[in-house]
Amino acid sequence: MYTKPQGYVPTLGAYVRSTVPLAGAGAVFAAVTCASTSLRGKDDKLNYFLGGSAAGGIIGVAARTFRVGVPVAAFLGLSAILYKDSKDNGWKLFPGVTHRVGSFDHVSYDFTLQKSHK
């Protein structure tokens, strides 16, 4: 928060100004991708590119400048193509993470009876 808002209401406003456009971009990505898939009758990478580009456009509108919107739209469109390719061909850009309940060193504090004792 580089603006350093003073008080609770300006701080809440700063959070809203940053999170609402991102949530809107996610919703627009899903809506445009689904609509283009339905209209075109094909589930291919072009639909994901259109959705990513539309999401980038939402971020550009929130920033109120083409200097942000056009590059972000291109980047998100290309990223969406990579995501669709990873879904189609079964590869992962980032390694999988196993989620566990507890703290970072949960193994040290695991007192269940089912734990294997070595």
User: How much helix, percentage-wise, in residues?
Assistant: 55-70%
User: What count of domains describes the coordinates?
Assistant: 1
- Globally, the shape reads flat
Report how far the terminal alpha carbons are from each other: 48 Å
Order of helices and strands: HHH
Tell me the major beta sheet: none
Tell me the strand percentage band: under 5%
| Poorly predicted runs of 5 or more residues | none
Membrane topology: Multi-pass membrane protein
Subcellular location: Mitochondrion inner membrane
Family: Belongs to the complex I NDUFA11 subunit family.
Organism: Penaeus vannamei
Description:
This protein has 118 residues and is mainly α. It has one domain. Helices cover 64% and strands 0% of the residues. The chain is built from 3 helices and no strands. The chain has helices at residues 8-40, 45-63, 66-89. The longest helix is centred in the N-terminal third of the chain and has 33 residues, at 8-40. The relative contact order is 0.09. Its main location: mitochondrion.
Strand and helix layout:
Elements lengths: L7 H33 L4 H19 L2 H24 L29
Helix pairs in contact: 1-2, 2-3
